Amino acid sequence: MVKRGHSHFTGVPCSLLKGLFRLLEDPGCPAAYIPAPREDSALGVASGLALAGARPVALMQNSGLGYSLNVLTSFNLIYDVHLPIVVSWRGHDGNDAVEHDVIGRELTRLLDVFGIPWTVLDNARPEDGVEAFLKQYDSGRSTAVLIVREGI
């Protein structure tokens, strides 16, 4: 993502994304990482950065995406402030904490309902998944989601 010009990352840590957060928190990382207290706050920070001309990426758990839908639908999608969002897919296989079961089971359908394109990251070929995700985002600058179902 950094090679494609994404300069700022903001979000709430998640165990499935811990490798990515570890890279972002490294002092040698070429991108800026701005921690957020909640996922909807991360969308606000990323939106401000996007409006200022930066190329941010928001990072969150799928449970946080659930309560961030109001921000997405009442601001980002209607005012064309589109963002690339990386979402961990907790509960997709029914083997997670019970609070992740419903959103895990319905994540892709939820994104479809709101017309948000998504790509599931294949850990065996992560570059291909990131490239497909960024193409969805870059084509017409639409909000797009990269779903991470296994830890990275």
Automatic annotation (TrEMBL):
It comes from the Bacteria. InterPro entries: THDP-binding (IPR029061), TPP_dependent_decarboxylase (IPR051818). Keywords: Decarboxylase, Lyase, Pyruvate. Signal peptide: none annotated. Transmembrane segments: none annotated. GO terms for molecular function: carboxy-lyase activity; magnesium ion binding. This is Phosphonpyruvate decarboxylase alpha chain. It comes from Streptomyces aureus.
